[in-house]
Amino acid sequence: MKKLNSIFIIDDDPITVFGIKKMLKAITICEDISDYKNGKQAMEGLKERLQHGYPCPEVIFLDINMPIMDGWEFLEELVNIKLPERIIINVITSSIDPIDYKKWNDFRLRCWHYLNFKNKPLYKIEATDLSRVHLAS
Amino acid sequence: MKSTKTLPIPYILKQLPNATALVDNHADLIDASDSWYALFDIDRNEPLNLITFLKDHKDIDKDALQEILSTNANATLTHSTMVDARSNWFESTFTPWFDEQENAIGTIIQTKNITDSVENTVELDRIKTLLKAQSEVAKVGCWEYDLGTEELNWCEVTKNIHQVAPDYVPNVNDAIAFYKQGYSRNRISMLFHKTLEKGAPFHEKLTIITQQGEERWVAAAGKAIRKQGEIVKIFGTFQDIHEQVMTDKKIRESEQLLTTLIDNLPINVFVKDKDSRKILVNKAECDYLETTPDALLGKTDFDLYDKEVAQISRDEDLEVMRSNKSMIGKETINVKRDGKTTNFLTSKIPLLDLNGKAYGLIGMSMDITNMKQKEDQLRNLINVTAIQNKKLINFAHIVSHNLRSHTANFSMLLDFLIRETEEKEKKRIMKMLFHASDNLLDTLENLNEVVDISTNVNLDKKSLNLSENITRMQQNLSAFLEENQVEFENFVPDDLTVLSVPAYLESILLNLVTNAVKYQHPDRTPIIQLRAIKQDSNVLFSVTDNGLGVDLERYGKKIFGMYKTFHNNKDARGLGLYIIKNQIEAMDGNITVSSEVDKGSTFNVCFNEEIE
Known about the structure:
The complex is a heterodimer of chains A (137) and B (612).
Chain A: E1 2-10, H1 14-27, E2 28-36, H2 39-52, E3 59-63, H3 71-79, E4 88-93, H4 98-110, E5 114-119, H5 133-136
Parallel strand pairs in A: 1-2, 1-3, 3-4, 4-5
Chain B: H1 9-15, E1 19-24, E2 29-32, H2 34-40, H3 50-55, H4 62-71, E3 75-83, E4 86-98, E5 104-113, H5 115-137, E6 140-146, E7 151-154, H6 156-162, H7 172-177, H8 183-198, E8 202-209, E9 215-227, E10 230-240, H9 242-264, E11 268-273, E12 278-281, H10 283-289, H11 293-296, H12 301-304, H13 307-323, E13 327-335, E14 341-352, E15 358-367, H14 369-419, H15 423-455, E16 462-465, H16 466-476, H17 478-483, E17 487-490, E18 497-500, H18 502-518, E19 527-535, E20 538-545, H19 552-555, H20 576-586, E21 590-596, E22 600-608
């Protein structure tokens, strides 16, 4: 089983958060899973980690529709933050609006991090959602 | 008693006043009167043979002459001479000359100069021929009525016009009966008798029915001829003017048709000369300019319109006349002196003379102001529809997204449940499923609320006292307001009313005030200020708080969006502002916000007071 140091779940829906956590248990061992209700809280958490030199998340599950700071706004800020490692960001949404897919693609092209696009409902988290290293090798 | 002296015969002969000559049986001249010698201008002393002499004359039957003289017959001959290119006509009468024993001893010849008479005859014939020709060509006939004999004479042309046979003999009654019954017959009868009694001349255009039943227009004229003051005859002319009248009538009819057409066209028609002066205008043009044709003729656009508009029109005129090319269907705007603006669809067509040079133009303008207005209305409607459509699509996305997220949760949880073996975990998942179900019901309720506003087209707006409604809201919220120690500063005039759906006004007040309290600043007692002012056709109502404020630069676009919350507030549904915005817009009003973070916010609601 793949071992991960840190995972962020950013979603205002507690059921989705519950689901992701449950699915993660099946595929990985991670001691440090943090969940946030919106982008702002997550950004604050991330900055705190950077400030104190705590490990940054290797994988982020990011919802788009959230109050106060949505997923896109979070990504926009993340692009401008200097991070030691590339993060795998799984954008998760129930939206089937093509505009959201296009936005994701725009971010994918200009973002240093790895971006995946996943539509709800989720049933399983794949290995590729958590790691790129294996793919490359 | 006086004795008579007998003169010798030859001397008597010499003095005879009529030209007389005596010849013997050989036609040798024995003697003649002085008048005879003078007639032919010959010398008395020269011997002369008549046959030889007359042989030189023209137009004489020489054989007859020989015969007459040799047989001493009674006869008359005419002959002529040419003197200085003028014909002299003579008539000679031959009578045998007897002696006492009744022996024919020669012939007595009496000669008359008949030149004048012959010339008169020729002239008369010529004039008659001319008159006949003239009357035939001009179709002018004549007639004559003799009061004495009561005879009526028609010339050939008059008969032709009546279409009667050449030997037809008319009388006054029949002649009058030819005229068409009614006006024509009554009129001619009256005129004829007036001429008969008083000698008044007449000239009238009337219709007759010819012998062959054709109806034709004629010009009949009559004039009395007097002899020693008494009317003895009536002479008149009679002319067929049918074609002329018909042509005139046709021209008048075409003219009438054209005038009727031009005048009744719902298009302004005008003809301008080279200097853009109007030389013809129709009724529509006169109506548009609220004047008469006489007042418009000779006027230019500069006399009628705003200077700028007139100059544009004049430039168009010049271009049309210069290029000889029509200007078709151009949209123009006319501004009258009184400032009234009209949209026209104008065409200008050059009027060309025989050399192909423009000497003016025909203009046609159709008033399309109404169409233009309709077009604008339609465009507005399209804009409104486009906005509505955008709203609908937006709403559809919200619906699909919200429903999808809940169903996705159901799907995921059910998937977990099926594979879960542990009882405790199963219960946990079941609890989650109930939670998801409640969420879905909530969402459906919210959406229903929004749909209600959007679909409620027949809004029952009432004039409501704003102050009373504020008081009622305060009473309803009294517990909540007291708990939060809210201070109200109400500046709304007591008598101010707004036009609103009662339920919507309640919702607007409730949402704005609860929002102001919910997002209060933790360090301050909430103060809410209410203001309202009546403007032209609106009432501007504002709610100002001293709360957290919203970062409008960041959230400005989303503040009235559905499911948008900007503070970590447990009660925030992200629905209140979305709903009241929909309610306000459904009543043709609008809502705006101004805010500063940590200072507070002001929501401005504009109620539309116009009654549709």
